[in-house]
Amino acid sequence: MYMGICQANDMFQISRSDLVSSFNGQQGMQSIKKEEEDSFSSVLAEKLNGTYKESNVPYSHLAKDGVIEYNGVIFVCDEVNQAICLGDMNDRKNVISIELENGGRLMVNRNNFSELQNAITMFTPEDINRILRAIADDQKAQKELLEIEEMENSIGDDIDEEKIAR
To answer: Is this model's pTM higher than 0.85 or not?
Structure first.
């Protein structure tokens, strides 16, 4: 299992560098760099004038008014849970929570994995590994749950067939 994740991660890192190099050419990279510089400048200004409030939310340095927008993907900062959230958080059964390297968590609705893929370059390599591992584990668990459900349904079908045969 671990070997497969490493191999998937190696493949992902290759596609990640391809993504970064092709992301809207140099203009896209300059835009991201400019956003990061603006964010740093505003934090620095807040620290200098005494209005800076430290956030426990991961990647909060990228947030503006509690929202992180990266490559068109919108994450909402959740101070209470020290998390950044992607997608609908109302149905907790459909949300996976991933502990991040430097504290806090990423909470993602399973229906938003494709969006997460578009914003993966926002995360550190350590967090990317954690995210990939969590998604692989979740997909394995979801597959096992589906197999159990199918077995339970087939047991009912077997009982019905026995009743008909009698």
So the answer is: no
Give the 3-state secondary structure percentages of the chain, helix then strand then coil, rounded to 5. 65, 15, 20
**Could you read off the pLDDT of 2-41 as tens digits, one per residue?**
333 333 434 333 344 443 444 444 444 444 455 555 556 6
Joined together, the tokens standing for residue 64 give: 């503006």
pLDDT digits (tens, 9 = 90+) for 88-132: 999 999 999 999 999 999 999 999 999 999 999 999 999 999 999
User: Which sequence spans correspond to the domains of the chain?
Assistant: 2-165
Three-class DSSP category at 108: strand
Residue 162 CA to its chain's centroid (Å): 47
Apex CA 86: angle with CA 134 and CA 146, to 5°?
50
For the chain, the maximum distance between any two Cα atoms, rounded to a whole number of angstroms, is: 85
For residue 151, what pLDDT is reported?
86
Helix (H) or strand (E) holding 161: helix 125-165
Q: In sequence order, what are the beta bridge partners of 69?
A: 74
Identify the pLDDT of residue 40: 60
Give the DSSP letter of residue 90: S
